[in-house]
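Quick one:
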Amino acid sequence: MMLDVRNLTVSVPGRRLLDSVSFSVAAGERFAIIGPNGAGKSTLLKVLCRILPQPAEAVRWQGQLSSGLAQKDLARWVAYVPQALAHTEEFAVREFVLMGRYPHLSPFSNPRRRDWEAVDQALAATGMEAFSGRTLATLSGGELQKVVLAAALAQEARVLLLDEPTAHLDPFQQDQIYALLESAHSRQNLTLLEVTHDVNRAALGHDRILGLRDGRVAFLGTPEELMRPEALREIYGKRFLLAPHPNLNRLVVLPEGGREAT
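Output:
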């Protein structure tokens, strides 16, 4: 197992954000995390990479207790791709992607040749070489998301934690980001943990799926097991319609419609 989570509970005053969450992820697996707003999805990713405090015995990476790893050592294993960036608008693209190399740099040391090679390879993989001198503030949403992914790839971690990597992007840009992730997964055998609100994306693009509701595990299984009315209702508390995909031997979900057109 690349990741093993056992009885993970996280609380803030007056509220339990995660309640006895347990699951495991195999090396190279594509693992989706779904659920309604406020279910604890983003909180879970932030706990896994220790942006939020982590219970001492709850998380293990390849058998090692996460709480016992130095932050720099953890960053050699895990790269986090957030929903949005803060206070980075003045950084140039290449300078920002270089920040992904911090687990491999000594304090106050200059980047080495290997660091710049990793940056250039990540920019090439995401098609952002021509933007390397631009500032982040000049980029579109899709371009900015590619740069964030480039920084994660330059980090050369074994796991990508992706918090809604295509939020606010149009369908064309979404397809580009998903193609990048598939390419990185197949070339490097990366382990992907992706939070998404798109149930069909979870079912069609992942090996297994974790469904959270009110901080608890409401579902854990394969896409085929997810595509059942009772499983979806357990996660979301509402009914969905199921229909065959026109090109794949899979079911997809549709929200129950409103009134019929007249």
